[in-house]
Amino acid sequence: MPNVLIVDDSGIDRALAGGLLEREEDIILSFATNGREALDQISSTRPDLVVSDLQMPEMNGLELVAALREEHPSVPVIIMTALGSEKIAAEALKIGASGYVPKASLSSHLPQAVRRLFDASSADRLHSRLFHSLQDLDCRFRLQNDPELISPLVDRIQEVLRCLPLGDEAERVRVAVAVGHGLWIAHHHGNLELALNGHWTDSEFQEVAIQQRMESPATERSIELHTVINREQATFTISHEGAGIDVSRLPPDLESQAADRSWLSGFVMIPAIMDEVSYAPAEKKIILVKQAVQARDDDLEFS
């Protein structure tokens, strides 16, 4: 069973997060009150995932993320954010956090974020050595109007990313999650043509998406993922058949808006994880590039 360490100096918030995750029958929980205590526990128990508050005494969430990247790089971290801390959360993503969840909507977002990360982390370890031997890959997947195929495709991408030196397991998971966000953006804002500056709540957004998905022309549209990976870099070109995605239409306060509307979070997470991100509205494409860590530090090993 996966072990999740919840780190928060507030007993109420620890209990809330723990109560939400206890409903997931295959998760074991442990708790810490600050980053320093969390590091001590991680050294002895090695959890599969850390869920941490940002603002804590002794060692805050940002410092904890940095320390984990240095001392335990294979342990992913999800940050819980309070109102007004969105910019710090974005910084946490840049230095290694695997995701963030607003505290105001923990009940609807935390279990989903944890499950998504575990799904992305569950690639068959028996394939690890085989994919480390892969020298290069050039493949295309075309998904019809069926978003249920996005998750298994992300799992497959995570497996083949083993041939790209990324430094550690957590970074490979982060890249796969970012590709997943790109696929959802192409589906929702490309093929379904849902406005980037919409004011839907998350539940309203899902309702509109389901309705749009069942109507023409969305029913006939597909998305394509062209993946090219070698030892130097991975390039993911996501194509769709809807209207071009014009990111200039995103709200100017994107980070704070994404804290309340998780359907915008991909636009924050992708540039925090990928080395290059470009949207080509005329070509109806999203292009994501991740460089091998050996290009930046030859001493790092394959993940």
UniProtKB/TrEMBL annotation:
SMART domains in the record: REC (SM00448)
InterPro entries the record matches: Bact_response_regulator, CheY-like_superfamily, Sig_transdc_resp-reg_receiver
GO biological process entries: phosphorelay signal transduction system
Positions of transmembrane segments: none
Keywords, in A-Z order: Phosphoprotein, Two-component regulatory system
Cross-referenced Gene3D superfamilies: 3.40.50.2300
Domain called Response regulatory: residue spans: 3-118
Modified residues (4-aspartylphosphate): D53
CDD domains: REC
KW Phosphoprotein (keyword) present: yes
Keyword DNA repair in record: no
Annotated protein name in UniProt: Chemotaxis protein CheY
Taxonomy of the source species: Bacteria, Pseudomonadati, Planctomycetota, Planctomycetia, Planctomycetales
